[in-house]
Write a structure and sequence with these properties.
The structure is a single chain. This protein is mostly helical. The protein has one domain. It is built from 13 helices and no strands. Helix 2 packs antiparallel against helix 4, helix 2 runs parallel beside helix 13 and helix 5 runs antiparallel to helix 6. The longest helix has about 35 residues.
Length: about 350
């Protein structure tokens, strides 16, 4: 396994190779643009959310973060992969209905420019935060800057990447919904990391890992309640308003398979299952149970993105699976390298 340890240059080279593989697949084999867009919608939430969770913990001095700070921050190179993959969307922007009637805000050059600029800004802010935090330097201002950029970026992901795709359906709450899901997903990633590194962390002096595990379980429980509230708030407004342009999208979503089944599945995985399971104190103290709930939450986030995009954009299922397995393997390599070579964040 030590042969998989990469330095910073090796990781960035791997990012370029990953982008090249996805680009060749997208323009050579896929023929359908939805797989890349869905992959970006999901991984932008996870990658940006992991660094954002560290930023929040830096500001509130959360003690449980001491167990996983290095691992979560080590994922910051994934932030650079997002703008690289987003560039591949340029030839596929015709899937957006506004390209037939562009305006001042929604036109191809400005759409690409503002999103690329913000994705790059998030990467540089995340790298700066990671360097200061790992060097045990004051990271408060860096955390504030990153969180502001994170909120702006996830809001654009919600409004630009997704909502302009399903126009005329609109939701002013969607930006807050997306960046909340970013933090929720990061809490779930923390639960999986506890399963991977619990014994190692337990052996380190001065780290009450069992208490930190319970804190992660409590955090996921709290986010399940928050997510449920945001989801119900959006649903209530749509039901109360009963406007054709809002209700029409929901009806199209649930009128046929697999949208009908997916629309029932993701509320179960993002709210009901974690809420009920994490009510019990023993569950929050069992790393296998916490990791199991975390896996359910991450699966729910992916199912939700799939449910939202599938009725509008065609996609190749095999290509979608390949992209996400590739990025998952990349994240594992970066994580493994950080554990065995902490000097990569310098």
């Amino acid at each position: 396994m030590t042969s998989l340890v990469l330095n910073k240059a090796g990781i960035y080279t791997l990012l370029m190779i990953t982008t090249l593989l996805i680009g060749l697949t997208e323009f050579g084999l896929s023929g359908k643009p939805g797989a890349l867009l869905l992959t970006l919608l999901f991984w932008s939430t996870i990658a940006q959310g992991c660094i954002a969770l560290v930023a929040v913990c830096e500001l509130v001095n959360a003690r449980w973060m001491a167990s996983l700070r290095r691992e979560l921050l080590s994922l910051y190179p994934l932030l650079l992969l997002l703008p690289l993959l987003f560039l591949l969307l340029w030839p596929q922007l015709d899937l957006y209905p506004w390209t037939k009637h562009p305006n001042l805000w929604l036109n191809k050059p400005f759409f690409m420019t503002r999103n690329l600029a913000l994705l790059l800004a998030v990467f540089f802010a995340g790298r700066h935060l990671a360097r200061r935090s790992m060097a045990k330097q004051p990271a408060g201002p860096a955390a504030v800057i990153y969180l502001l950029l994170f909120v702006a970026s996830q809001s654009l992901v919600a409004f630009d990447w997704f909502m302009s795709l399903v126009w005329p359906w609109i939701s002013t709450l969607l930006g807050a919904y997306f960046f909340t899901e970013g933090l929720y997903g990061a809490a779930a990633v923390s639960g999986l990391l506890m399963l991977l590194y619990f014994k190692q962390k337990h052996a380190e002096n001065g780290l009450p890992v069992t208490i930190h595990l319970r804190d992660i379980g409590l955090l996921m429980f709290g986010f399940s309640v928050l997510w449920g509230g945001l989801f119900f708030a959006q649903f209530l407004l749509l039901w109360y308003g009963n406007l054709p342009e809002e209700v029409g999208f929901i009806l199209d979503l649930v009128s046929s398979s697999p949208g009908r089944e997916l629309a029932w599945l993701f509320p179960l995985t993002l709210f009901l299952a974690p809420f009920l399971l994490l009510l019990a104190a023993p569950v929050k103290q069992n790393r296998h149970m916490v990791a199991g709930v975390a896996g359910v939450v991450l699966a729910g986030l992916f199912i939700e993105r799939l449910c939202l995009v599938l009725p509008t954009v065609p996609m190749h299922g095999g290509v979608l699976l390949f992209y996400n397995l590739l990025l998952f393997a990349l994240a594992l390599v970066i994580l493994h390298s950080s554990v065995h070579a902490t000097s990569q964040i310098d």
